[in-house]
Design goal:
Layout (H helix, E strand, L loop, with lengths): L11 H35 L2 H49 L3 H7 L1 H25 L2 H16 L5 H44 L1 H6 L3 H53 L5 H43 L21 E8 L9 E8 L4 E6 L5 H8 L7 E6 L2 E2 L5 H7 E4 L8 E2 H5 L8 H10 L3 H6 L7 E2 L8 H15 L3 E5 L7 H14 L4 E6 L2 H4 L4 E6 L2 E6 L1 H7 L1 H10 L2 H4 L1
Helix pairs in contact: 1-2, 1-5, 1-9, 2-4, 4-6, 4-9, 5-9, 6-8, 6-9, 8-9, 13-15, 18-19
The chain binds adenosine-5'-triphosphate (ATP).
Length: 576
């Protein structure tokens, strides 16, 4: 956890100020019982009202000063802790942005969200507590002991007996709590995962009448988290009664022995009052420390999880000295014996794939589900790195390029259209901030999105809700195609992006795209033969391997797998 505290650095002056203020507050508080003792032993015993009033006023002054220090320190620590939280969240977010999909697969979205929110809040709360108690609690304990001993050394033996007992209780409870806190955070992850899956898949859950099943899944995760939380609370809750019991017992013992000492004229009444207050201050501070110890295990479990994210090195990074090419208008894409296996998978998803896609041409990839089509596109986008072979654009290995440059060359339309909350125009402009309104409109026109955008009252300013849920599947696909077109890239990657379009729109879109993208390299993954039968080159994938490469006619003659796909979709006349 302390490793994370490096992010407090911008607030270090505030931390110093808080520590100083808490120091002053502790001194003020430690002085109060002594003044009280003076009032009794000097003022009351001698019947000196003036002295009582004067010392009383001083007590008020010290108390007010202590409170002022405390309030200011509270304000400053709250601000520092909140600032710390902001910095850590920002750093985690920025670091996660550098991850390749491999690291995303490793943590999972739900856990990443818990780590960025709840886990950071835990550490933030402990920082707040620590700043206020870091110095003041030990000071109150040590100062209290010194003052108590100065009032009556013999009576202090009571404290000598109690304090080690209290410390032992705190250590025992904290050591039992730590493993449970780790389990609790993992269970919180699970709860978030179930909740997230349920919310994002709500349509499927409803359609398949799985509401009850989902509810029971949530209940199980919820109960499991609650069970652990109860276990933790049960352990932690013994600490307070034990501490209070010890506190009260020690006060009784102090009164008892103090009374005897006063009887024997070894001690004054005022000193006993002050002694009891010091004892209460010491024991209260110990209780506060124990509270801190209760929070530290949970926060350190959280800190481990945050550090795990921060310490994970992205597997895909720009090579030092990655070449910065001049802006490339054309993109020759070469796959050279590409082999790739997803981490944890037994078999490679694609094996030994070689082909070249040229500017001005449409290269199509077709194959059964799970044959590796999207994987090839993921590799070209460098979401993952190849295990064998290489991918080159204009003769340069993509691992030698800066990721930003590579992705700047490509207009990528993913299999699952994903839109962002905002307006239609903002979504189309997503990949190219500089696009003018005319360019945005033109891109929408080419993507056959203009007709439905024009039909909406607010046109390009129409709202897109989170995830684009207020648009149909086909409309979302067209908007994400328009987004790629607005960039005017050298290479287009359409990963099964026409699947939700009707045949007429599909044909219109391809025709307008052809005219628009004369010089661009087009890579089109498709399930429908009609979408790609006019392609310059068709690559047929079968179970991760190339089953054939050629034009529609060539493949019909030479490739059994292709013929099978075609005959399952088209009539005899259409095939010719
Ligand atoms: N993130 C992943 N982790 C592990 N395995 C994966 C991952 N993504 C895909 N796979 C596996 O890799 C293989 C190829 O998947 P891919 O998505 O490339 O197929 P596809 O041809 O695009 O299929 P579809 O047409 O159904 O989209 C499949 O066996 C799939 O199970």
């Amino acid at each position: 956890m302390f490793k994370l505290f490096r992010f407090v650095r911008p607030y270090r002056m505030w931390v110093v100020a808080v520590v100083l203020l808490m120091f002053l507050q502790s001194i003020a508080q430690l002085y109060l019982p002594t003044l009280m003792a003076d009032i009794v032993d000097i003022g009351v015993v001698n019947g000196d009202a003036g002295y009582i009033l004067q010392t009383g006023a001083m007590m008020l002054l010290f108390a007010a000063f202590g409170t002022l220090c405390n309030v200011t320190a509270g304000f400053m620590s709250a601000k520092t802790a909140a600032g710390f939280g902001k910095i850590v969240r920002g750093n985690v977010f920025a670091h996660v942005e550098t991850f390749s999909l491999q690291e995303f697969d490793k943590f999972g979205t739900a856990s990443m969200i818990t780590r960025t929110t709840n886990d950071i809040t835990q550490v933030q709360q402990v920082l707040f507590m620590l700043m206020r108690m870091f110095l003041s609690a030990p000071l109150m304990i040590v100062g209290g002991i010194v003052m108590a001993v100065s009032k009556d050394a013999t009576l202090s033996l009571v404290l000598v007996a109690v304090i080690p007992l209290l410390v032992a209780v705190i250590v025992l409870v904290a050591s039992k709590g730590l493993p449970l806190f780790q389990i609790m955070q993992a269970k919180l992850d699970r709860l978030n995962l179930v909740l997230r899956e349920n919310l994002t898949g709500i349509r499927v859950v409803r359609a398949f009448n799985r509401t009850e099943w989902e509810r029971s899944r949530f209940r199980t995760a919820n109960e499991s988290l609650t069970d652990t939380a109860i276990k933790v609370t049960r352990i932690m809750s013994v600490i307070f009664p034990i501490m209070l019991l010890l506190l009260n017992l020690s006060l009784v013992a102090i009164m008892w022995f103090g009374g005897i000492r006063i009887d024997n004229q070894h001690m004054q009444v005022g000193d006993l009052i002050a002694f009891t207050q010091y004892a209460a201050q010491i024991l209260m501070s110990l209780t506060m420390v124990s509270m801190m110890f209760m929070m530290i295990p949970r926060a350190s479990a959280s800190a481990v999880r945050i550090n795990e994210v921060l310490n994970t090195e992205p597997s895909i990074v720009d090579r030092t000295g990655a070449r910065e090419n001049a802006y490339v208008q054309r993109g020759v894409v070469e796959f050279d014996s590409v082999t790739f296996r997803y981490p944890g998978a037994e078999q490679p998803a694609v094996r030994n794939i070689s082909f070249t896609a040229r500017p001005g041409e449409m290269t199509a990839i077709i194959g059964g589900t799970g044959s590796g089509k999207s994987t090839l596109m993921n590799l070209l986008m460098r979401f993952y790195d190849v295990d064998g072979g290489g991918i080159r654009i204009n003769g340069q290995d993509i691992r030698e390029m800066r990721q930003e440059q590579l992705r700047g060359l490509v207009g990528y339309v993913p299999q699952k259209a994903s839109l962002f909350s905002g307006t239609v125009a903002e979504n189309i402009r997503f990949g190219s901030d500089a696009a003018t309104m005319e360019e945005v409109e033109h891109a929408a026109e080419v993507a056959q999105a203009k007709p439905f955008i024009d039909e909406m009252k607010e046109g390009f300013d129409s709202a897109v809700s989170q995830g684009g849920t207020n648009y149909s599947g086909g409309q979302k696909q067209r908007l994400s195609i328009a987004r790629a077109i607005a960039r005017g890239p050298a290479v287009y990657v359409f990963d099964d992006s026409f699947s939700a379009l009707d045949f007429k729109t599909d044909a219109l879109l391809r025709a307008s795209l052809r005219a628009e993208t004369e010089d661009a390299t087009m890579l089109v993954v498709a399930q429908r033969v009609s979408t790609i039968m006019n392609a310059d080159r068709i690559i047929v994938l079968d179970d991760g391997e190339v089953a054939g490469i050629g034009t529609h006619r060539e493949l019909l003659a030479s490739c059994g797998v292709y013929r099978e796909i075609v005959t399952s979709q088209l009539s005899e006349e259409e095939i010719q």
